[in-house]
Design brief:
Helix content is 32%, strand content 16%. By secondary structure, it is α/β, with parallel strands linked by helices. The strands form two sheets. It has a seven-stranded parallel beta sheet, sandwiched between helices. It has a three-stranded antiparallel beta sheet with strand order 4-8-7, with helices on one face. The longest helix is centred in the first third of the chain and has 18 residues, at 9-26. The chain is globular, with a radius of gyration of 17 Å. The N and C termini lie close together (11 Å).
């Protein structure tokens, strides 16, 4: 994997948005896998600004979800479908028809998971999947000890994850107990994986994922198995990397034509 150390979250967002813009210039109907939460917001903000300025044409782009709550109505403000529509699809000037996501309201949730994997394959596969990382190394909702070969499936949220997400709801009781998440095996099928991590709180997870062994205990370490994985981290998130100086030197010497 390639590790890129940037000064701050804004710089990371701009760098990744530039890579997405380059992808859309090569493949205008690229399928972009997006993540929710606060970490990727600088990416979406920079990409939307590039679209508004005319620097990027996203009119044919397609967007797909990484995960979704089970049981929240599709129109619920905190369903991830609503969040993606609000933070990504609408700012890029896209329509809901450009969006692919799992059905968290289905009576047969497992069938909905299998249907989503098929939908991604039928769409030609994900061209670039954005990822965040949890303090325990999780990606999507693949908590520690998730199978590295897992497919899109139902997962039970840990109490800590529910407490972390309670800030988006009126109370902890409103936070669903279950989610649909792309599995690690599903995630690894994307052509390019881009993980953004910011803040000192992510430093241990980043170091274990990048420099530690590949282990189900640290789900993000599976990115080491991918032929085109990019980890973008700010200085704080890079603070525990033993090879930080090497990563800086490698990126500084990288030919511009390679991009991300």
């Amino acid at each position: 994997m390639e590790v890129v150390i940037v000064p701050d979250a804004k710089a990371g967002g701009e760098l990744i948005a530039e890579a997405i813009g380059a992808l859309l210039s090569r493949k205008p109907d690229a399928l972009l896998g997006v993540a929710t939460g606060s970490t990727p917001l600088p990416i979406y903000q920079a990409l939307a600004a590039a679209v508004r300025s005319g620097a990027v044409d996203a009119t044919r782009a397609r967007v797909c979800q990484l995960d979704e709550y089970v049981g929240l109505p599709a129109g619920h403000r905190e369903s991830y479908r609503s969040v993606v529509l609000r933070e990504v699809v609408e700012p890029l000037g896209l329509t809901e028809g450009s969006f692919i996501g799992p059905d968290g309201t289905a009576e047969d949730v497992q069938a909905a998971c299998e249907a989503y994997d098929r939908a991604l394959a039928e769409a030609g596969g994900v061209d670039l999947q954005l990822l965040g990382i949890g303090t325990d190394g999780h990606i999507g909702f693949n908590e520690p000890c998730s199978s590295l070969a897992s497919r899109t499936r139902i997962k039970t949220l840990t109490q800590q994850t529910r407490e972390d997400n309670a800030r988006f709801f009126d109370s902890l009781a409103e936070v669903p107990h279950h989610v649909i998440t792309q599995g690690i095996g599903t995630i690894l099928e994307a052509r390019h994986l881009v993980l953004l991590a910011t803040g000192e709180g992510k430093a241990d997870a980043v170091a274990q994922s990048v420099e530690g062994p590949v282990s189900a205990l640290v789900p993000a370490s599976a990115l080491q198995l991918h032929p085109h994985a990019t980890v973008v981290v700010d200085e704080a998130a890079a603070s525990k990397l033993k090879l930080a100086d090497y990563f800086r030197a490698t990126y500084a010497a990288k030919p511009a034509w390679q991009g991300l």
